[in-house]
């Protein structure tokens, strides 16, 4: 049996997911990174995308995160996410609606800060759409 790493996904309101896994792949701010038992300590930003939980070569769970931070030790990987949900709970309709709302807000923004916040929401909606498209295939979003 392979060594396991304990994974937790925490939002400001709850512990969304906690399970031991052979590997966890996280959408890091500088690119995706995999975490196995014995990983070197690491702190990283998390961009909008899908966290994949592996048992062997099979993805057993996919979780969508809107962004946040990851803390990795030799025994555990904890993702502190601004918002998160199971990929199976996402829909293309909701993501597309969110994208269109963000575009409307961006186009109406009167300052750079408002435009930047709307652009971030567009990135999140695009990542949601990619996660929906990859749902069930075990593909990275």
Structural account:
With 141 residues, the protein is an alpha+beta fold. The chain has helices at residues 92-108, 112-134, and strands at 5-10, 15-21, 23-28, 31-35, 42-46, 49-55, 58-65, 68-72, 76-81, 84-86. It folds into 2 domains: 5-87, F0F1 ATP synthase delta/epsilon subunit, N-terminal (ATP Synthase, domain 1, Sandwich); 90-134. The protein has 2 helices and 10 strands; from the N terminus they run ββββββββββαα. Strands 2-1-9-8-5 form a 5-stranded mixed sheet, with no helix packed on it. Helix 1 runs antiparallel to helix 2 (112-134). The protein is elongated, with a radius of gyration of 16 Å. The protein starts with a strand and ends in a 7-residue tail after the last helix. The model has no long low-confidence stretch (mean pLDDT 92).
**Average pLDDT over all residues:** 92
Tell me the β content: 35-45%
Helix and strand string, N-terminal first? EEEEEEEEEEHH
Based on secondary structure, the structural category is: alpha+beta
Give helix % range: 25-40%
Broad CATH class of the largest domain: Mainly Beta
The CATH architecture classification of the largest domain is: Sandwich
C-alpha Rg, in Å?
A: 16 Å
CATH superfamily of the largest domain: F0F1 ATP synthase delta/epsilon subunit, N-terminal
Low-confidence stretches: none
């Amino acid at each position: 049996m392979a060594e396991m790493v304990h994974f937790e996904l925490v939002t400001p309101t709850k512990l969304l997911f906690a399970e031991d896994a052979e590997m966890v792949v996280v959408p890091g701010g500088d690119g995706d990174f995999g975490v196995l038992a014995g990983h070197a300590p690491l702190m990283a930003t998390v961009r909008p995308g899908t966290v994949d939980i592996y048992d062997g070569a099979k993805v057993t769970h996919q979780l969508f995160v809107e962004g946040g931070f990851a803390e990795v030790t030799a025994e555990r990987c904890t993702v502190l996410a601004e918002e998160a949900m199971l990929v199976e709970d996402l829909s293309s309709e909701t993501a597309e609606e969110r994208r269109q709302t963000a575009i409307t807000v961006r186009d109406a923004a009167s300052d750079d800060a408002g435009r930047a916040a709307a652009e971030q929401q567009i990135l999140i909606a695009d990542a949601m759409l990619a996660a929906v498209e990859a749902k069930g295939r075990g593909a990275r979003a």
